[in-house]
């Protein structure tokens, strides 16, 4: 094994911030109580710590602590929000709307509901990855129960116009769910300003621990949900199971830190990202930026490289840890469905990299990344018949 | 190797004594080191780069360790967020089958819709004749859920016999082993459980992870949490690697379960007999049945459970009344009601021991408990 890879996959997961770790560790041993033990001080201390975390998380999205339901992660939150709402609803609204570029767990939850008798509209996105509001307006109606649109896309980093979507939903009496796992701590989120009724959050995407997430559930007016996990009746009956106190504490602290540092950090990341992008396009032709160039978070760059066969690209990038396609589907050879939804052909979708920058990324690391990517693409193109045809002047192989 | 127990800030002279291991156990040192180390390792197990592959390898090694301990194939281990999720996944995962549950199941098994309840006798043991009749009553195949050991009484069910009855009728058997795991060491392979649920934090592992273990990896429940296809498509969501690694480390640290069980049994026998001798009207629930070595469910008939637990907390003794799960008030124990103990259901408390319990703590418990019980009883008689 060679030297450690430079980690540039912050959309897949983020390292746990050492400050977060320091806050968490005592709750594994010194304060190990079960927060649901109402009969002794071990339990009370754990409960107190969990409630502080709940407040810290709520504060970051402009919610009340009582509106935060702890889960095991954003995947569970998305499942609970979508299936929990639909299965609780007995009225005439039997229609769901979501978007082709949503996370798999949102799409799969919707597909399950489709089999249970709901109708689901999967809206396309434009070439820039953004949802067209007119398209939404055309399908939403008084039969629509829920619209589910993510705040920030996990592969291409684009920011959806949630406030406008929220206003549209309100006009039609539909509820709005947003998977904000990739947005939390990166862009300002305010559940009231955005008119979001349900919002999914994740700990490990904002320098907190894995295994913990949250679902914001609006209380006024109350959004009714059917629990996915029955049992001890924790989380006001919406999510049973012993709360993992150290993980809650870590998630809370991660939110507290993000609230303080978010603005400055986003600016720093935009600078690094621009350095990375300019460094690559300055040295390579045929580089395509996926997703809207401005309406995107600072720490994401998703690039496609023309005239090469992409399957082998990752192998050539041994010095940096980046991803092709989303983390959840990266083990399969299917081209990214998100990139396909932008209109990229299968070759370009395969020949793409998601580069995720974050809190511990340095300028020096960006320089290494530029070198690695330019070298890898150049070498890979040298073996590609498409590159040879391009050099011979063929335009057939261009996009 | 006592666990780290804080002293009471309000009364610094009193050290808290923790007797609520069935609610949760402090993290074992070996597991703590594993978790703390893993929390410093970044990466998503689904990523194909080297960082991701490192995380994947750690998870798969933990999976193999757990599978080996249970005599199962690694493919049959589905990591979940805990025992509650594992139980929900099992009982909701076979919609084509009737769901039958014993009357003393944890709410994560029995709180949802069920098609039949199997009665237990006064000691809390499943009535095999009633079970047989219930299974025979309907030709539709069933999923039967019976826990290995009860969380409140510690009563151990004759799972092997129950499995034979269940399988004779073509039923699948789900066994909630959350409380028994690490305290009993049966021949897991011969137990006959088709599905087995486990929780890490009950054995001194970290909270936030558990597992559903399948006897046949191809006979799996329908996924409850869907998405990225993790856990062989049975449970989506980024794997909680640090907790999974901590689970495996706790498992390793269990060491010789037989020796530890003998140690706990001696401590519990001393506690039970000393308290009984000093408090003749004390009742131990499920006394006639085989019970876990670490659990005593006891009642003083004239004292309400909530009075007793609060008074004990003031003395720095942490025990529980009923089950620790429901938020807010202490309700009469549903388990004891199912055992026909209506008079004692509101009086019973649970005292549970674990890896950090010491002989010295047991003596302190006896001393403080007897004093509290006598004081409260005297007050009750005077009232």
Description of the molecule:
The complex is a heterodimer of chains A (399) and B (383). With 399 residues, chain A is an alpha/beta fold. Chain A folds into 2 domains: 6-12 and 262-391, Aspartate Aminotransferase, domain 1; 18-257, Aspartate Aminotransferase, domain 2, CATH 3.40.640.10. Chain A is built from 12 helices and 12 strands. Chain A has helices spanning 18-24, 41-60, 74-88, 104-115, 133-139, 162-172, 191-194, 245-281, 337-341, 346-350, 363-382, 385-391, and strands spanning 6-7, 68-71, 95-99, 119-123, 144-148, 175-179, 198-202, 213-217, 287-289, 300-305, 320-321, 352-356. In chain A, the strands form 3 sheets. In chain A, strands 2-8-7-6-5-3-4 form a 7-stranded mixed sheet, with helices on both faces. In chain A, strands 9-10-12 form a 3-stranded antiparallel sheet. The relative contact order of chain A is 0.16. The model of chain A has no long low-confidence stretch (mean pLDDT 94). Chain B has 383 residues and is an alpha/beta fold. Chain B is 37% helix and 13% strand. Chain B has 12 helices and 13 strands. Chain B has a 7-stranded mixed sheet with strand order 2-8-7-6-5-3-4, sandwiched between helices. In chain B, strands 9-10-13-12 form a 4-stranded antiparallel sheet, with helices on one face. The mean pLDDT of chain B is 93. The chains are: A alpha/beta (399), B alpha/beta (383).
The CATH homologous superfamily of the largest domain in chain A is termed Type I PLP-dependent aspartate aminotransferase-like (Major domain)
Overall body shape of chain B: globular
Strand fraction of chain A: 5-15%
Poorly predicted residue ranges of chain A: none
DSSP E strands of chain A, number: 12
Order of helices and strands of chain A: EHHEHEHEHEHEHEEHEEEHHEHH
Structural class of chain B: alpha/beta
Please give the CATH architecture of the largest domain in chain A.
3-Layer(aba) Sandwich
Mean pLDDT of chain A: 94
Radius of gyration of chain A: 22 Å
Task: Name the helicity range of chain A.
Answer: 25-40%
Write down the CATH topology of the largest domain in chain A. Answer: Aspartate Aminotransferase, domain 2
The greatest inter-chain interface is formed by: A-B, 77 and 78 residues
């Amino acid at each position: 094994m060679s030297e450690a890879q430079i980690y540039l996959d912050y959309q897949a997961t983020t390292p746990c911030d050492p400050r977060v770790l320091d806050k968490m560790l005592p709750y594994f041993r010194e304060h190990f109580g079960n927060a649901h033990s109402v009969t002794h001080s071990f339990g009370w201390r754990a409960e107190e710590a969990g409630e502080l975390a709940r407040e810290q998380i709520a504060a970051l999205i402009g919610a009340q602590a009582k509106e935060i339901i702890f889960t095991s992660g954003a995947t569970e939150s998305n499942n609970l929000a979508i299936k929990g709402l639909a299965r609780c609803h007995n009225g005439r609204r039997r229609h769901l709307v979501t978007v082709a570029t949503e996370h798999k767990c949102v799409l799969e939850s919707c597909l399950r509901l489709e089999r249970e008798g709901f109708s689901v509209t999967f809206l396309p996105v434009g070439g820039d990855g953004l949802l067209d509001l007119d398209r939404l307006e055309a399908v939403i109606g008084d039969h629509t129960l829920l619209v589910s649109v993510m705040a920030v896309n996990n592969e291409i980093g684009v920011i959806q116009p949630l406030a406008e979507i929220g206003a549209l939903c309100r006009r039609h009496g539909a509820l709005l769910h947003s998977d904000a796992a990739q947005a939390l701590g990166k862009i300002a989120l305010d559940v009231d300003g955005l008119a979001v009724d349900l919002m999914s959050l994740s700990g490990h995407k904002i320098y907190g621990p894995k295994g913990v997430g949250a679902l914001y559930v609006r209380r006024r007016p109350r959004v009714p949900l059917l629990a996915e996990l029955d049992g001890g009746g924790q989380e006001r009956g919406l999510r049973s199971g012993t709360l993992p106190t150290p993980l809650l504490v870590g998630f809370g602290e991660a939110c507290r830190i993000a609230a303080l540092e978010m603005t400055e950090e986003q600016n720093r990341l935009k600078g690094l990202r621009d350095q990375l992008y300019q460094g690559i396009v300055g040295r390579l032709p045929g580089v395509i930026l996926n997703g809207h160039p401005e309406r995107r978070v600072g720490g994401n760059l998703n690039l496609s490289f023309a005239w090469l066969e992409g399957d082998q690209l990752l192998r050539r990038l041994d010095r940096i840890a980046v991803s092709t396609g989303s983390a959840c589907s990266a083990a399969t050879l299917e081209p990214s469905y998100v990139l396909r939804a932008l209109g990229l052909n299968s070759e370009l979708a395969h020949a793409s990299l998601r580069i995720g920058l974050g809190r511990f990324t340095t300028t020096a690391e960006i320089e290494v990344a530029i070198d690695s990517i330019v070298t890898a693409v150049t070498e890979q193109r040298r073996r590609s018949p498409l590159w040879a045809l391009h050099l011979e002047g063929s335009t057939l192989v261009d996009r | 190797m006592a666990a780290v127990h804080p002293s009471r800030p309000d009364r610094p002279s009193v050290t808290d004594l923790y007797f609520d291991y069935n609610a949760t156990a402090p993290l074992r040192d070996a597991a703590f080191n594993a978790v703390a180390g893993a929390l410093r390792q970044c990466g998503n197990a689904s990523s194909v780069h080297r960082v991701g592959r490192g995380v994947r390898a750690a998870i798969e090694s933990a999976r193999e360790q757990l599978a080996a301990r249970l005599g199962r194939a690694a493919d049959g281990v589905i990591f979940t967020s805990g025992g509650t999720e594992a139980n929900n996944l099992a009982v909701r995962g076979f919609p084509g089958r009737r769901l039958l549950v014993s009357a003393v199941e944890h709410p994560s098994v029995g709180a949802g819709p069920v098609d039949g309840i199997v009665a237990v006798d006064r000691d809390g043991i499943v009535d095999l004749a009633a079970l047989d009749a219930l299974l025979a009553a309907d030709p539709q195949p069933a999923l039967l859920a019976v826990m290995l050991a009860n969380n409140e009484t510690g009563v151990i069910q004759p799972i092997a016999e129950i499995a034979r009855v269940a399988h004779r009728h073509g039923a699948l058997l789900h066994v909630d082993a959350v409380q028994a795991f690490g305290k009993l060491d049966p021949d897991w392979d011969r137990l006959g459980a088709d599905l087995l649920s486990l929780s890490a934090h009950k054995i001194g592992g970290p909270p936030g992870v558990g597992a559903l273990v399948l006897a046949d990896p191809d006979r799996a429940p329908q996924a409850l949490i869907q998405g990225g296809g993790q856990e062989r498509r049975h449970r989506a969501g980024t794997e909680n690697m640090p907790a999974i690694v901590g689970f495996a480390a706790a498992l390793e640290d269990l060491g010789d379960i037989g020796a530890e069980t003998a140690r706990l049994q001696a401590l519990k026998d001393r506690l039970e007999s000393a308290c009984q001798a000093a408090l003749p009207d004390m009742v131990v629930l499920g006394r006639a049945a085989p019970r876990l070595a670490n659990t005593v469910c006891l009642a003083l008939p004239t004292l309400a459970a909530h009075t007793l637990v609060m008074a004990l907390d003031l003395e720095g003794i942490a025990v529980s009344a009923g089950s620790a799960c429901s938020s807010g008030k202490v309700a009469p124990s549903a388990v004891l009601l199912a055992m026909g103990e209506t008079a004692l259901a509101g009086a019973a408390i649970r005292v549970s021991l674990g890896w950090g319990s010491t002989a010295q703590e047991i003596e302190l418990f006896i001393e403080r408990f007897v004093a509290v019980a006598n004081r409260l009883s005297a007050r009750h008689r005077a009232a």
